[in-house]
Amino acid sequence: MDESVVWVDFDTMEQFMVKAFTAVGVPEDDARICADVLITADKRGIDSHGINRLKPIYIDRIREGIQSPVTKIDVVKDGPTTAVLDGNNGMGHVIGRGL
Q1: How many CA atoms lie within 13 A of 8 on its CB side?
Q2: Alpha carbon distances (Å) from 33 to 5, 22, 56, 77
Q3: What is the mean pLDDT of residues 51-70?
Q4: What global pTM score does this model have?
Q5: Does residue 35 form part of some domain?
Q6: Cα 29 vs. chain centroid, distance in angstroms?
Q7: CATH number of the domain that 82 lies in?
Q8: 86 close to 74: Cβ distance less than 8 angstroms
Q9: The predicted structure's pLDDT at residue 97
Q10: Which of 7, 12, 67, 92 is least surrounded by CB atoms within 10 angstroms?
């Protein structure tokens, strides 16, 4: 085994991610949703959308003002089976979990 690889269990990583998200202003409940979604991607083998996106995508975008740490969801249009939502540049994971 390569000694330069450090394995971190998912529970420890989730705690770290929640702290990282909340440190940049994401509400704790939303931070838990985001961490869960990213970890679940890794558990399913979808590494391109997992934990590795934490800093370069989400933390950096929040710090640069590109993404809002607080997710405000507006219903633009709704019908009997569908709706158009505006997440106002918030956290997609939270938007995806629904209203």
Answers
A1: 12
A2: 27, 12, 18, 25
A3: 97
A4: 0.89
A5: yes
A6: 11
A7: 1.10.1530.10
A8: yes
A9: 86
A10: 7
